[in-house]
């Protein structure tokens, strides 16, 4: 878990309305702490890319303020932008340039003096050193994405944005990239990522920020979020199906599966008393014989879906299936 530090990125009252009238960001507040991995999650069109583009100074906001390391992104653009590394989702690289040259050039674009030792370190971190003399066009899609990360790290930023960093990357390269992300966090770099692989956010992130319709729904420590909004489900398989719940089990928050073979009980695993002991006693009193027992913990994906869509949308999707 990243230490409780003051925000290195602060966004307040950010609004972006395009000329056609569409509001991509709606009075949005957002922050990221120094030395944390923050996952920015949201459905397509939620405003993730617009938010990142605005923080990076690519998109001009309609109103509101953005500071990076205390520097206002509009009033002190060069200093603010020099603290940011951006890895876009699109694979936009110069195909005929050598890997080491394209990374070194990116460093120079931010006014940093040549530093072959730093370029070498970054290329080795990303397993690109053996490819340093290759032209970028000769690399696979996954390796090209690593080149983008190397370019973003060339000028030693304090904040790194990764927009869908593992899209199109094979499993082995993906694991290696996450090792690099963890190492960057240990060095104090703030990593803000968007991803469609929510299980990666669940594994990697210190905090989760959920955006929908141009607004931040919440930003919370991952563990606290999963404790607060997650639930655990106990599923009891019966040796013989039943047509209805016995009176001894009514009023205990238990559901009977449609086929009558299972009892489903939801509970708070962090509560002092879960009620499971009394449930099993009531099961015996009702004369029911259990054949199997299993539990299921809510995943971050389930929490995300409930936040963005709500239970009514969940029911509509189930009905349509």
From TrEMBL:
Keywords of the record: ATP-binding, Nucleotide-binding, Transport
Superkingdom, taxonomy of origin: Bacteria
InterPro entries (UniProt xref): AAA+_ATPase (IPR003593), ABC_transporter-like_ATP-bd (IPR003439), ABC_transporter-like_CS (IPR017871), ABC_transporter_ATP-binding (IPR050763), P-loop_NTPase (IPR027417)
A molecular function (GO) term: ATP hydrolysis activity
Every ABC transporter domain range: 9-238
Pfam families hit by this protein: ABC_tran
Signal peptide segment: none
Regions annotated as coiled coil: none
Protein name from the UniProt record: ABC-2 type transport system ATP-binding protein
Lineage: Bacteria, Pseudomonadati, Pseudomonadota, Alphaproteobacteria, Rhodobacterales
């Amino acid at each position: 878990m990243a230490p409780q530090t003051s925000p290195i990125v602060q966004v307040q009252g950010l609004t972006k309305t395009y000329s056609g009238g569409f509001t991509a960001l709606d009075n949005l507040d957002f922050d990221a702490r120094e030395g944390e991995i923050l996952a920015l999650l949201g459905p397509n069109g939620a405003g993730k890319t617009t938010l990142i583009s605005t923080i990076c100074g690519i998109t001009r906001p309609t109103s509101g303020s953005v500071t990076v390391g205390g520097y206002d992104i509009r009033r002190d653009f060069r200093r603010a932008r020099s603290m940011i590394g951006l890895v876009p989702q699109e694979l936009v690289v110069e195909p005929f340039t050598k890997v080491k040259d394209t990374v070194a050039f990116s460093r120079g674009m931010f006014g940093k003096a040549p530093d072959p030792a730093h370029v070498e370190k970054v290329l080795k971190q990303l397993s690109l050193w053996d490819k340093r003399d290759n032209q970028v066009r000769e690399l696979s899609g996954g390796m090209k994405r690593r080149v983008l990360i190397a370019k973003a790290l060339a000028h030693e930023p304090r904040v790194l944005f990764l927009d869908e960093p593992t899209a199109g990357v094979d499993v082995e390269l993906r694991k290696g990239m996450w090792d690099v992300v963890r190492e960057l966090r240990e060095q104090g770099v703030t990593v803000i990522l968007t991803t469609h692989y929510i299980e990666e956010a669940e594994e990697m992130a210190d905090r989760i920020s959920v955006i929908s319709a141009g607004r931040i729904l919440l930003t919370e420590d991952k563990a606290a979020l999963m404790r607060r909004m997650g639930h655990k489900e106990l599923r009891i398989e019966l040796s013989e199906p039943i047509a209805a719940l016995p009176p001894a089990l009514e009023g205990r928050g238990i559901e009977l599966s449609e086929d009558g073979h299972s009892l489903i009980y939801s509970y708070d695993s962090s509560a002092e008393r879960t009620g499971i002991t009394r449930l099993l006693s009531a099961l015996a009193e009702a004369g029911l014989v259990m054949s199997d027992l299993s539990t299921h913990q809510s995943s971050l994906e389930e929490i995300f879906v409930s936040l963005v869509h709500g239970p009514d949308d969940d029911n509509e999707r189930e009905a349509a299936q």
